[in-house]
């Protein structure tokens, strides 16, 4: 499926669909349904009308997925739908640049009822994709502006392939999880390359889809090695120090962790595959955990962003519940929640990362709405910025945010500078906000 979604040649695309159909019929294991994925590919405005009848004749029907990860079946399907959305955007961009307008499929063909099958109807309803035509609130003029961007798609030094998390060293250098290149890059704030380490694998200094970065008070770099279900710790020069965690459901074990942050002596990890948050010491000793799968207070559907406020509150992006939950970091007690599914002011679509500045202002990137939303420390909406696109100030599935500096410009206002990992534009964007 991943290879198919990267295909840009129409003939190869059809051949890939046929091979996918054959592969699915030969699989064994837990029941699942990939029809929503096929429908999403067919009806998004990226496939020429001439191909639609040929694709429509393929019938995936009820399919069987492998038994290796039965607990993760739903998140696998959701990730495929999100990837299909990205592929649609890429093909639409290619058509806009290289073909006449009459090639495009009418937008009215976009389905409004694409869902993923969940154990109960309530969860199923929450996974509906929002119409992309809803009015989207924008920030007040001058409140947020894009300053510059760093990087482009590639494997060269200073380039990225789906960057999705970052931290900052004491000297101001940026440490970036270059996820699809399976490496970590260190850059100056202006984008000048400094250092690189890591490659694909499961050994020391090797990564499989590194998902986030955190830096402690001693400039040690904590790399969330997502697909290896562990954390690797390095010095600021990239020298390996230790490994924390392993694959599993026990204390201090992880399944596809998506986010990490450090607050004092605490390491906080969004243990996404286990639908919980774990708190550890800097040397990896388990402290406490909270959360379980669900839609209620203190429950998660794939937590994927964590940040700690100056008052010690922990903010967690509850990705598939389209909300942010607040807890006491010290004991995991639930405090409150904010956000709901949608694209209006204060609503969210797949919140993916979060940061809190020294004054308690909360920054949330939304993977589904291609924007950044800003809230106060109580979860009250303030403003948002961005839209789908590849120009400066636009995003394609932003998936990481980090505050880099802030200063007062008068008695009432503060300038906050921060970076956003613009994942599918394969770049970082530096933004400035006046609050």
Could you explain the architecture of this structure?
Helix 3 packs parallel to helix 5. By secondary structure, this protein is α+β, with helices and mostly antiparallel strands. The model is unreliable at 28-33, 42-49, 58-77, 90-136 and 138-142 (pLDDT under 50). The chain has 6 helices and 28 strands.
* Count of DSSP strands: 28
Count of helical stretches: 6
Main sheet characteristics: 4 strands, antiparallel
* Nearest-integer average pLDDT: 79
**Percentage of residues in strands:** 35-45%
- Straight-line N-to-C gap: 44 Å
Shape: globular
Give the C-alpha Rg.
21 Å
Please identify the structural class as seen in this structure: alpha+beta
Helix content: 10-25%
Characteristic terms for this protein:
single chain; 435 residues; alpha+beta; four-stranded antiparallel β-sheet; 6 helices; 16% helix; 35% strand; globular
């Amino acid at each position: 499926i991943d290879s198919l979604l990267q295909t840009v040649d129409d003939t190869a695309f059809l051949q890939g669909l046929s091979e996918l159909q054959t592969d699915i019929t030969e699989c064994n294991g837990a029941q699942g349904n990939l029809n929503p994925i096929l429908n999403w590919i067919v009806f998004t405005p990226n496939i020429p009308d001439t191909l639609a009848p040929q694709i429509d004749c393929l019938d995936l029907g009820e399919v069987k997925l492998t038994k290796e990860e039965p607990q993760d079946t739903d998140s696998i399907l959701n990730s495929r739908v999100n990837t299909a959305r990205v592929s649609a955007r890429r093909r639409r961009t290619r058509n806009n640049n290289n073909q006449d307008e009459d090639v495009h499929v009418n937008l009215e063909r976009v389905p409004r009822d694409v869902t993923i099958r969940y154990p109960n109807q309530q969860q199923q309803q929450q996974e509906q994709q929002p119409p992309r035509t809803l009015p989207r609130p924008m920030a007040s003029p001058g409140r947020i502006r894009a300053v510059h961007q760093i990087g482009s798609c590639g494997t060269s030094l200073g380039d990225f392939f789906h960057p999705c998390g970052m931290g900052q060293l004491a000297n101001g250098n940026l440490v970036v999880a270059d996820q699809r290149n399976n490496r970590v890059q260190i850059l100056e704030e202006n984008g000048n390359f400094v250092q690189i380490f890591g490659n694909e694998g499961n050994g020391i200094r090797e990564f499989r889809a590194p998902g986030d970065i955190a830096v402690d008070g001693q400039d040690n770099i904590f790399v969330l090695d997502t697909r290896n279900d562990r954390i690797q710790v390095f010095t600021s020069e990239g020298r390996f120090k230790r490994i924390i965690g392993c694959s599993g459901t026990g204390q201090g074990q992880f399944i596809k962790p998506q986010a990490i942050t450090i607050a004092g002596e605490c390491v906080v990890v969004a243990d996404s595959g286990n639908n919980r948050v774990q708190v550890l010491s800097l040397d990896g000793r388990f402290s406490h955990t909270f959360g379980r799968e669900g839609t209620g207070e203190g429950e998660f559907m794939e937590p994927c962003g964590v940040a700690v406020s100056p008052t010690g509150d922990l903010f967690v992006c509850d990705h598939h519940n389209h909300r942010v939950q607040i807890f006491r970091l010290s004991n995991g007690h639930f405090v409150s929640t904010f956000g709901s599914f949608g694209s209006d002011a204060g609503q969210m679509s797949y919140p993916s990362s979060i940061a809190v500045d020294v004054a308690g202002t909360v920054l949330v990137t939304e993977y589904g709405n291609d924007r950044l939303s800003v809230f106060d420390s109580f979860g009250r909406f303030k403003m948002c910025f961005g839209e789908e696109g590849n120009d400066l100030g636009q995003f394609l599935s932003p998936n990481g945010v980090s505050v880099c500096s802030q200063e007062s410009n008068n008695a009432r206002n503060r300038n906050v500078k921060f970076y956003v990992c613009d994942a599918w534009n394969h770049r970082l964007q530096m933004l400035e906000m006046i609050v």
